[in-house]
Amino acid sequence: MEVGALSVQLRAEQVPDLPLPASPAFDPRAARRDFPILNQTVHGKPLIWLDNAATTQKPQAVIDRLARFYAEENSNIHRAAHALAARATDAYEEAREKARRFVGAADTGEIVFVRGATEAINLVAKAWGRQHIREGDEIVVTWLEHHANIVPWQQLCAETGARLRVVPVDEDGQIRLDEYARLLNPRTRLVSLTLVSNALGTVTPAAEMVAMARSAGAVTLVDGAQAVSHMPVNVQALGCDFFVLSGHKMFGPTGIGLLYGRREVLEGMQPWQGGGNMITDVTFEKTVYQPAPMRFEAGTGNIADAVGLGAAIDYLERIGMPVIAAYEHSLLEYATAGLSTVPGLRLIGTAREKAGVLSFVLDGCRTEEVGRALDREGIAVRSGHHCAQPILRRFGVESTVRPSLAFYNTCEDLDALTAALHRIRHTLVRRGH
Ligand code: PLP
Description:
17 strands; seven-stranded mixed beta sheet; Aspartate Aminotransferase, domain 1; binds pyridoxal-5'-phosphate; alpha/beta; two-stranded antiparallel sheet
C-alpha cells in the first residue's frame, strides 16, 4: 500500500462549508513531535498510540501550561483578595472563554466546568431531570450510546417512573431516522444522543435529530466526548440545549470537562451540589445561589486542569479543526482499506459518516488476545466492550478490538497495525485462540 499517498498538503478549499483553517498545511509528523510521550519504545518497539478514543496524549504546550500554573499562579479562585488569587482566577476564566469559543456558545455563562462528560450528563440528569421529568414522561437515547449516556437516564427513570426509549440503528450502525421520528411524541421530554459513537465511530445526524426533537417539544443533550478531537463543533449550529465533553479526550488533562447549557435552560435549573463557591448568601434559614455557571461549580474546582484544557484548545485552534477533520478523514479511509486486507477481519460499524474509530473482530481470535499481541508490537489499542455494551450486542459481539485515531497518527502507524494483524492472526489461528 502506498504510504506516501496521504502525505498530502490539505488545502482550505478542500474542506467545504467550514471556516478557513489557521494553517493551510498539515504535517502529522511535525504534530507528533509536540507529544513527548509518543517518543518512546514499548516492549522494545516504537510506541504507536491508537487508543485515542479512550484518552488522547498531551502536547508539550499543555504540560508546560500546567507546570506554569503550579509554579507561578496557583491559588484558590474567586475568594481571596491577593495577587495569586487574581492570577489564578484570570487563568481559569480565560479558559472558560476559550471553551466558549471552541464550542461556539454565545456566552461564558453557558459554560460549566465539570470533571468530564460523565459528570456533565449526571449533572443534567440530577439537576434538570429531577426538576422536569415525571412519571409517564419519555427520555430518548440511541442504541449507540456510551454507558455514561444510558445509566444516568435509567436511574432517573427508576426514580421518577419515566420511560427510556431507544432509537435503533441499521446494519451499518447508522441511526434509523424513520424509527426515531416514530418514537418522538408529546410525552418525549428529553433526547440525549452522541455525536460520534465511541464503539463504532458513527457520526450521527445530530443537528437534524435535535431539530426533530425540538419540534416535538423535547429538550436535547448532545454528547460530544468523541467528536471534539476530530471535527469542528458549534453548539448553536447543532441547536442543542446541552452539550458535554471531556478534556482528556481532546489533548487536555484528565479530571476536567465541560457542560454547555443554553442560557434559558441553565438559568431555570436548580444546583445539584451545594457548598462553597456556588452561593451569594447563606443563613441557617436560607441560601441564595449564584447565577450560572457558578451555581453548578460547588467547592474548589479543578482549576489547574481547566487552565490546561484552555491550552489544549489553543493548541487545536493553532492547527485548525477543519484541517484535522480533513486529514483524519483520509487517515480513516486509509486504515479501513488496510484492515480490509486482513483475512477473517470483520469491521463492526460501517456507517457512511464515521470519525476516528475502527472496531473489529478477528475470526478465530479472542479480542483480549489480539490486544495483548498488538501491545507486544508496541501498538496500543483497546479491546473490550468500550463501555457501550448495548451497541456491541446489537452486532452480536461482547467485545471488539478498537484502534482509534488522532491527528498525530500517520499512514506508517496504520501500515504497522495492518502488518501486525496479518502476523497475529496467523499465529493465533495456528495456536487455536
Ligand atoms: N461519552 C462518550 C461517547 C464516550 O466515549 C465517553 C468515554 O469514553 C464518555 C461519554 C465518558 O467520558 P468520561 O469517562 O471522560 O467522563
